[in-house]
Amino acid sequence: MNPTILAIESSCDETSASVIQNGRVLSNIVATQAIHEQYGGVVPELASRAHQQNIIPVVSQALQRANIAKSQLDAVAFTRGPGLLGALLVGCSFAKSFALGLNLPLIEVNHMQAHILAHFIDAPQPNFPFLCLTVSGGHTQIVLVRSHLDMEVLGQTTDDAVGEAFDKSAKLLGLPYPGGPMLDKIAATGNPNRFSFPIVNMEGYDFSFSGIKTSILNFVKKNTAAEPDFVQHNLPDICASIQWALIQTLLKKLVLAAKEQNIKEIAIAGGVSANSGLRATLQEYAQKHNWNVYLPAFEYCTDNAAMIAMAAHYQYLAGDFTTQYASPDPRLKV
Ligand code: KG4
Ligand code: ZN
Question: Under CATH, to which class is 4-116+301-317 assigned?
């Protein structure tokens, strides 16, 4: 089997299409929706409309860049969920119509599994079984990955996702959206030990990130009452200290899971895996705990269709197809 697959991703604010042939990504076009910047966060209704405008040009470019004609395709894949319902509907409806028009089979992909399978786009690839810390704007999970399509969530956040915690912390400090990458950049020049923010320890492998927002809000209120420009004057140290607390919260549980599951193959995935502090700390932990650590290439950390294509490749080989009755599932689980 040597499948050529067109994959569509439209779960949030990135419209993306990718072509994969025999497991090799030939193209990965991503249209980022800048419109949300002025609102300080993703506006679901506007995301759906932008997907509607972007989807055909993005797919045309993906086919062109891959130098693949529609007649060469063997299947069409799309993100079924999790994600924003209106955004998912655009990708799902497009994929269904496209597949129907060309009489091709359809493959529905789980967005969270796809983030993990981004590790199989390029070498080095993790060996099974491995643990993946999946950290994005909507999820924070420790996943036991037994094979390409056999995954189990061992622990997850009980409230906010860590990406959300990054974005909301940045907003409280007056940084523009998307706050995560900005906070990361500013933190690079700060002292992470200057201020102290809570590192919440939940049961088992679970996480909680909602408390850190309140603690930052109180911290900002208290200090600006005494010194109005406190945040501006201390921004790098504040960012570095917040980032340190978020990373420690994540890694505490990852260390516990690695120890109890007796696994030394450790990967990270999702938007927050682009965080330079998290990447550097993981490299240190690799030395300390004798782990083999796998960090995704930056282009495959945040949402993209290449990871959907990679998942679709393995599903094609496993004969895992869906029907024209397929519909999005905003709360789909791994
Ligand atoms: O995986 P993703 O693109 O979309 C979701 O599926 O949610 O993740 C987006 C999240 C956002 O919260 C964004 O702020 C965060 O990833 N993010 C970062 C960095 N780059 C993206 N957070 C911290 N540091 C970064 N460098
Ligand atoms: Zn994502």
Answer: alpha beta
Q: Looking at ligand 1, which atom is closest to the CA of residue 185?
A: 26
Q: Nearest C-alpha to atom 13 of ligand 1 is from which residue?
A: 180
Q: Using a 6 Å CB cutoff, which residues line ligand 1?
A: 12, 136-138, 163, 166-167, 178-181, 184, 270-272, 274-275, 302-303
For residue 319, give every residue at least 6 positions away whose Cβ sits within 8 Å of its Cβ, in sequence order, or none.
none
The minimum-distance atom of ligand 1 relative to the CA of 136 is 8
Q: What is the pLDDT of residue 40?
A: 83
CATH 3.30.420.40 domain locations along the chain: 4-116+301-317, 126-296
What distance in angstroms lies between residue 67's CA and the mean position of ligand 1's atoms? Answer: 31
For residue 36 the two structure tokens come to 């949300």
Strands, sheet with 4-9, edge to edge from the N-terminal-most edge strand: 24-32, 14-21, 4-9, 75-81, 106-110
Write out pLDDT tens, residues 302-333.
999 999 999 999 999 999 999 999 999 999 99
Q: What class, spelled out in words, does domain 126-296 have in CATH?
A: alpha beta
In the reported structure, the alpha carbon of residue 112 is separated from the centroid of ligand 2 by a whole-number distance in angstroms of: 7
- Looking at all shown ligands, the one closest to residue 109's CA atom is 2
pLDDT, tens digit (0-9, with 9 covering 90-100), for 245-269: 999 999 999 999 999 999 999 999 9
Q: How confident is the model at residue 334 (pLDDT cuts 50, 70, 90)?
A: confident
Decide: 242 and 216 in contact? Cβ < 8 Å.
yes
